[in-house]
Amino acid sequence: MSPVFDNFGRFVDGFQTSLWICFLGMIGSMILGTIIAGCRVSPIPPLQAFGTAYVTIFRNSPLTVVLFMMAFGMPELGINISYFTFGIVGLILYTSAFVCEALRGGINAVDPGQAEAARAIGLPFAKSLREVVLPQAFRSSVPPVGSVIIAMFKNSAVVGAFGVGGDLYSEGNRLIGAGGFAALPIFLGVAVGYLIITLTAGVLLGVIERRVAILR
Amino acid sequence: MSAPNKVLYDAPGPKAIARTRVFSIVAVFLLAALLAYVLFRLADQDQLSYERWGAVIDPTNDRFPLVWQQLGEGLLNTVKAASVTIVLAVVIGTLLAVARLMLGKWGRIPLAGAMELFRGLPVVLAIFFASRVLTDMGVNIAPLPGEDGLWFVVLGLTAYNSVIIAEIIRSGVANLPRGQREAGMAIGLTSGQSMRLILLPQAFRQMLPALISQIVVAVKDTSLAAILGIYPELLLQARRISQFLDNPIQMLTVAALIYIIINYSLSRFAIWLERRLSGGTSKGDVEDAVEQQPVGAGA
């Protein structure tokens, strides 16, 4: 394992960059995913159509196509930003479709009787949503949203493979390629780095799930 | 579009209907403006010209046959990689699931742990392992039929998908009523026989929709080969053509449409199958159940 320890600094740097990609991706896709979900469940037909189209397109294309489109398509339109930004924007666009569906699943899981009961006791629209429907929807969408986010953490490696540079995957790739180090130990080092991220996220998700599951 | 969600909204009265109409008109206007802006931008950058689209969409164009022959080859390679992967992954996944269900504690716990670790790794890392680390370690895959690139992709994807499919099948078996296995034992089958003859067939049947959704993920994941540049599947072919014709937006759009058509049909098929298998459940319930498609790597 000495190639790993000799280059430990590179691994730490790469790990931090990967973590940063994961963090930005998580925030971005939660926000955009919520907006798209809002469109899909709104009573306004054109917005519903927009939401459905968005989800159909991004859920059925590979992340790699989205990333290629970002990196090779956007410059054709005169939009030139760094690969790093392209990578994160692509990751967010792609993941949002899945976040949207997870949130929508949570809303659909609420028993219509709950909403009817809220209206029957005279709660106005905003209150019935805020006090009755959305809290329950939120609880049941925590596990699916969580697994979408963990999948996105793993997908951050695709962004890395794409040549963002400086993240865990790229560092490993460079050490094996140009660095000429033995592949196996470096690979194991990279794998451990990703496992630290995904397994920790899994444990945290478990804790959150237990927290919010109490009231159901 | 569908009627307003009845959990969120009461049946609309005349005022609400009028308001919805106003918002709809505003929304159509905004969406049209957005579309117009995108089209304008595309036209402004000369992206809608015949020069860039002709070779892809005009059958009379000189380059049209070659472009589609190349794309077809790529598509064929994608299908090849995805189907070999799924077949291998179902076989290995079933073995893993059975092992996990039938081994004693000392075999089961390490196996479950190893599977859990594997699930935490990015798929692209598995393909990277197959294409770079294995060769570096001196493993020779040349004796396998077909080109090396195919097997790099297949080995990487199979390793990951086997674990996922094992989990699907395991939960399928675990969700069967206890009485199924007990009945098997009662008529004198060994536990291996009751697994093979009674439990697995039912688990497969129930899990078929989930397995099909996993095919969608595998199809998407084959495109990771394009990033590593190891296997000429659909996306890599599209990329190569676009480098030659200098039309990345157009070629990538075509590639994306092909992926969307394949994957959308597969997921509709999974929904249809689920509805059929579950018998008379109402349409809404089933759609909601299947809408939760797994996030592959590509996802």
Q: What does this protein look like?
A:
The complex is a heterodimer of chains A (216) and B (299). Chain A is an all-alpha fold and 216 residues long. Helices cover 84% and strands 0% of the residues of chain A. Chain A contains 9 helices and no strands. In chain A, helix 2 (8-41) runs antiparallel to helix 7 (125-164) and helix 5 runs antiparallel to helix 7. The longest helix of chain A has 40 residues, at 125-164. The N and C termini of chain A lie far apart (48 Å). The mean pLDDT of chain A is 89. Chain B is mainly α. Chain B is built from 12 helices and no strands. In chain B, helix 2 (50-57) packs across helix 3 (64-102). Chain B is flat, with a radius of gyration of 24 Å. The two termini of chain B are 28 Å apart.
Helix/strand layout:
The complex is a heterodimer of chains A (216) and B (299).
Chain A: H1 2-6, H2 8-41, H3 45-60, H4 63-73, H5 83-108, H6 112-120, H7 125-164, H8 168-177, H9 183-213
Helix pairs in contact in A: 2-3, 2-5, 2-7, 2-8, 3-5, 4-5, 5-7, 6-7, 7-8, 7-9, 8-9
Chain B: H1 14-44, H2 50-57, H3 64-102, H4 105-119, H5 123-136, H6 148-174, H7 178-186, H8 191-222, H9 224-228, H10 234-245, H11 248-277, H12 283-291
Helix pairs in contact in B: 2-3, 3-4, 3-6, 3-8, 3-10, 4-6, 5-6, 6-8, 7-8, 8-11, 10-11, 11-12
Brief overview, please?
The complex is a heterodimer of chains A (216) and B (299). With 216 residues, chain A is mainly alpha-helical.
H/E element sequence of chain B: HHHHHHHHHHHH
Terminal residue distance of chain A:
48 Å
The largest sheet of chain A is:
none
Overall geometric form of chain B = flat
The pLDDT mean of chain A sits at: 89
Q: Kindly, what is the distance between the CA atoms of the first and last residues of chain B, rounded to a whole number of angstroms?
A: 28 Å
General shape of chain A: elongated
Structural class of chain B: mainly alpha
Helix tally of chain A equals 9
Largest interface: A-B, 73 and 66 residues
The helical percent of chain A reads over 70%
- How many β-strands of chain B, per DSSP? 0
Low-confidence stretches of chain A: none
**What pattern of helices and strands is seen along the backbone of chain A?**
HHHHHHHHH
What are the low-pLDDT stretches of chain B, counting only 5+ consecutive residues below 50?
Answer: 282-291
* Protein structure class of chain A: mainly alpha
The mean pLDDT of chain B is 86
